[in-house]
Amino acid sequence: MSGQTLSEKIISQHCGYAVQAGELAIVPIDGAMATDATAPFAIRAFRQLADAPRLWDAQKVSLILDHATPAPNERVANLHRLLRDFSAEQGCHFYDVGEGICHQLMVEFAHVKPGDIFLGADSHTPTYGALGAFAVGVGSTDLAAAWLTGKTWLKVPTSVKVEITGTLSRGVSAKDVALQVVGRLGIAGATYETVEFCGSALHDWTLASRMVLANMVAEMGAKAGLVDVTGLQLPYAWTPLHADPSAQYRATHSVDISHLRPQIARPHTPDDVAPIDELLGTPIHMAFIGSCTNARLEDLQVAAQILRGKHIAPGVRLLIAPASRRVFNAALLDGTIAALSEAGATFLVSGCGPCVGSLGGIPGDHETIISSTNRNFRGRMGNPHAHIYLASPAVVATAALAGEIANVEA
Amino acid sequence: MTTHVYPIDHIDTDRIIPGKYTKTLDLSQLAAHVLEDLDADFAKNVQAGDVLVAGGNFGCGSSREQAPIALKAAGVSVVVAEYFARIFFRNAINIGLPAVEIGKHDILPGHAVQVDLQASTVKNHTTGRTYTATKMPTVMLKILQAGGLVAYLREHGQYPTE
Lengths: 410, 162
Ligand code: SF4
Description:
The complex is a heterodimer.
Chain A lengths: L5 H10 L8 E5 L2 E5 L3 H11 L11 E4 L9 H17 L2 E3 L6 H7 L8 E4 L13 E4 L2 H10 L1 E5 L3 E7 L8 H12 L8 E5 L8 H9 L8 E4 L23 E6 L6 E3 L7 E3 L10 E4 L7 H11 L9 E4 L4 H9 L2 H7 L2 E3 L20 E4 L15 E4 L2 H10 L8
Parallel strand pairs in A: 2-3, 2-5, 3-4, 5-6, 8-9, 8-11, 9-10, 14-15, 14-17, 15-16, 17-18
Antiparallel strand pairs in A: 1-7, 12-13
Helix pairs in contact in A: 2-5, 6-7, 8-10, 8-11
Chain B lengths: L2 E4 L6 H4 L10 H7 L8 H4 L5 E4 L11 H9 L3 E4 L4 H9 L4 E3 L11 E4 L4 E4 L4 E4 L5 H9 L2 H8 L6
Parallel strand pairs in B: 1-2, 2-3, 3-4
Antiparallel strand pairs in B: 5-6, 6-7
Helix pairs in contact in B: 2-4
Iron/sulfur cluster (SF4) binds next to helix 4 of chain A.
């Protein structure tokens, strides 16, 4: 038998026997989370699954209010109440309005660890592959079933290997690498598969940067993303797992990032990616730095470096929603927030907000937005007549300053 | 019974039900806005028992179960596509909405289409071609036959095995 991919290895450990891609497995899970967007239907399904159901392990379950926070109307307020009441009744972890984006919180509060199998009722759950967890996005009913049983069923996925080599130029970041890979593989390039990233370029990457890469596997249809943990620093004891050298991959890609230019996804699909050079001079009306992709401390710091002592262009609004309260606090303490605010940035609640068009920062008709998020589908930010470009925080900040897509000064 | 055909790839969940409408447990609200950014008249025209046909990667994007729920609540009885995005596929089956994958097809708006779930076939009467659906994993078939995952688990207490 050939060696195992990292996905096969993690799933095998949970099954207690060796599995291969294509096999069906019922696996115990190490954690589960849902948000105000997905938990209401999960709670409804959960209550139908059994009479007076209880979570299989309340300490392994988290509920987060992040998608529409604070509540914009009474309907959403009542859904928030439903989550608060359910959390209190079941005794699970609960993160209220303003604590942050679900994926950021799961990692920050160590609800997910390397080698875990984790289910999230959100499509960007694969983000935790940044620390070597097999993390899968599911819908509300799948999640409800897992809440009750502590297990899920899955087909062991085939894996696509993406090897990253070289060194990033100044002004180029993990987001540009992620966009490059999404552009190359396409929006259905890894459907039902795991994208396993490895390569010497990643060894000195921060956890935050690794999260950008794992986050955007959702934009290739993947079930999970895994970043090889070589060089990863975590604040607790853990055992690193790696793919076997003789593992079988469905496909292998190598990406040399040494000469990579900043990358931008054009409207209305994240895989329509071009180097910045093709889009220089595109006027923009709104710039957004936020989301589970790019709103961590290093992202805000990069933006502050570009904007410190300057001011955004007239006619442009720059909105920033830090990924979590911890990120916000750290950025307050080191002066990042002051620099950005003085440059004209408007700060929003730590949460999803504009990313999914649920509240705050809805664009007008025919406006152009440059955003550090992960999706630019038509209507994504709440208006089907707006045009969304996806880019790195450095490119977004530079565009806010220039009023158009412009070269990042290295 | 009408067949609604959108022969394009990658119809994402934002187009099936925009995020701004998903914060509700009211199924009629979801049904009222289903597919509105793709076809503003769909919600008005769709009737109970109708069939929806699309290209490849239908339902890509978010994990929102509101997408298949909105289609089902609007009256769609079966979704046919070349293939489905992973989470949408599971969600549809979990809520008891049949989702049939038939690979590349020639179905266009206006064609007369007949879906036979028992025989796993989709017949295009206009062109005379019959498509055989891709075989679903047994576990999904059992969940669908039970009417969804809630019904299955209530009855059996555990996930189906092959
Ligand atoms: S920030 Fe955007 S992509 Fe991330 S979980 Fe929230 S809505 Fe989804």
